[in-house]
Design brief:
Elements lengths: L6 E6 L9 E5 L2 E7 L5 E5 L13 E3 L2 E3 L6 E2 L5 E3 L14 E2 L1 E4 L2 E5 L22 E10 L3 H8 L5 H4 L16 E5 L2 E12 L8 E11 L3 E10 L2 H4 L14 E11 L5 E10 H5 L2 H29 L12 H22 L5
Antiparallel strand pairs: 1-11, 2-3, 3-4, 4-9, 5-6, 6-7, 7-8, 10-11, 12-18, 13-14, 14-15, 15-16, 16-17, 17-18
Helix pairs in contact: 1-6
């Protein structure tokens, strides 16, 4: 089940540059993306209307894209403007295009009704180029339904079991319930985890960890994690830290986006950002190495989960108290998808 009237992350902006054609797929729709001479992006169905060759196998000619099977040329609007060997171009000779914008270092594509494409609905992520911050970024792909990745990111009780080797997290994460706040197009998840061992503070010192993130449709996370001296949680009455009285030993921001490629494959884009000072202390590179290891750990678990579920898809799963955030988010996806489907059935563009 997919929401269409929303912005999906197709790529990092540095993946779509120059005169290269960027090939991707979003919710089972093959797409080719390129940049025009004026710097604006074009997102086009990756299928020639003549004999169905992927247009990503074509070549750019100025701002137009030529299919390299029989030579049809398409303008950025998707309209065919040249058919070699004939003067008349059939009126139906065109391919679908999609609204596409660059924001917060990502290239976003709107998969629904173009008239409803509202740039204000792009979540407020943290750009890689944010002054005062240094970053690392990347992406991986999963052989799994995208909602399983959303589920994983909305329930951090797994950290002490899946990531004890990479992040060094304890099982206390499974015994510390977060505060969950419903947002208009997502959920906010916040918690303190107290009296933790930390590689940053050293073996003799304990720390309190504050974490907060917004998780927005269709699967975009904006997160901040802070490592603070032990006692900080009580100092702040278990509420968000007052930074005027709470020391920060390490802070990192992260933006992450889950994009369904197909029903069984997903793209996961992610960044880590720290202050210039923390980066110069080597903390960014150390945390990035742990992060990449952790994401490989997640992928192994989620792909194994997907295979197990595929063997008996009708089998009921038993919920736990930690399924609240992911349950609410799945409900949001299902609600909007149903509304779009109903509107489409009534003849109203979804």
């Amino acid at each position: 089940m997919y929401v269409k009237n929303c912005w999906y992350v197709a790529a990092w902006n540095y993946e779509v540059t120059g005169k290269a054609l960027f090939k991707c797929s979003i919710i089972n729709q093959p797409i080719v993306i390129y940049v025009k001479d004026d710097g604006q992006y074009v997102a086009m169905e990756d299928r020639c209307c003549h004999r169905a060759l992927p247009l990503s196998m074509g070549r750019l000619e100025g701002n137009d894209l030529r299919c390299m099977y029989h030579g049809l040329k398409f303008a950025p609007t998707g309209q065919c403007v040249e058919m070699p060997g004939q003067d008349r171009i059939p009126p139906g000779a065109c391919v679908r295009t999609f609204p596409v914008v660059e924001a917060h270092s990502w290239v976003w594509v709107w998969m629904g009704d173009p008239d409803k494409a509202d740039r204000e609905l792009i979540p407020e992520c943290i750009a890689l180029e944010t002054p005062g911050l240094q970053h690392r970024s990347g992406h991986i792909e999963y052989d799994a339904d995208y909602q399983l990745i959303n589920d994983n990111l909305l329930d951090f009780s797994h950290l002490g079991y899946v990531h004890s080797a990479s992040f060094g997290t304890s099982e206390d994460w499974a015994y510390t319930r977060p505060k969950i706040v419903r947002l208009e197009r997502g959920v906010r998840v916040q918690r303190w985890v107290t009296n933790q061992a930390s590689r940053i503070a050293g073996p003799e010192n304990k720390v309190d960890i504050w974490g907060t993130y917004d998780y927005m449709l269709p699967g975009v996370m904006i997160m901040n994690m802070r490592v603070t001296p032990a006692g900080s949680a009580q100092l702040n009455n278990m509420e968000p830290p007052d930074l005027t009285k709470t020391a920060t030993l390490f802070s990192q921001f992260s933006c992450q986006a889950v994009t369904p490629i197909s029903d069984t494959r997903s793209r996961y884009s992610f960044s880590v950002l720290t202050s210039d000072e923390d980066a110069e202390r080597g903390l960014l590179d150390a945390f990035w190495a742990n992060t990449r290891q952790a994401f490989d750990e997640d992928r192994a678990v989620i792909e194994a989960q997907a295979k197990s579920m595929a063997m008996d898809p009708a089998r009921k799963l038993i919920p736990s108290v930690y399924d609240s955030a992911l349950g609410q988010f799945r409900w949001m996806i299902e609600k909007q998808a149903r509304e779009e489907s109903s509107a489409s059935a009534d003849g109203v563009p979804g």
